[in-house]
Amino acid sequence: MKRNEYHVVPDGGGWKVEQGSTVVGTYDTKQQAVEAGRGVAHGNEPSQLVVHTADGKIETEYTYRDDPYPPAG
Fold this sequence. Notes:
By secondary structure, the protein is α+β, with helices and mostly antiparallel strands. The chain has one domain (4-64). It contains one helix and five strands. The protein has one helix at residues 30-43; strands at 4-11, 14-19, 22-27, 47-52, 58-64. The protein has a five-stranded mixed beta sheet with strand order 3-2-1-4-5, with helices on one face. The model has no long low-confidence stretch (mean pLDDT 92). It holds the Pfam family DUF2188.
C-alpha cells in the first residue's frame, strides 16, 4: 500500500502543508504548519510527514503506520 506523503515547506513569510502539488493549508508559523501536517498525516494513514527547514532541506520525518523495515532496495 502506498503512503500518503505530506510536506511542511516555507511559503513566502509563512509556511504551508502540501501533498504533491496540492496545498493542504497555509500557516503563519512553522509550529502551526507542523501540528496541522501531523494531524492530516495521522488522519490519512499510512502516511509520512516531511518537515523542511527555511532553506528547503529536510529537517525531520514522521511516519504513521506501516514503515517498511528494512526498506526495499
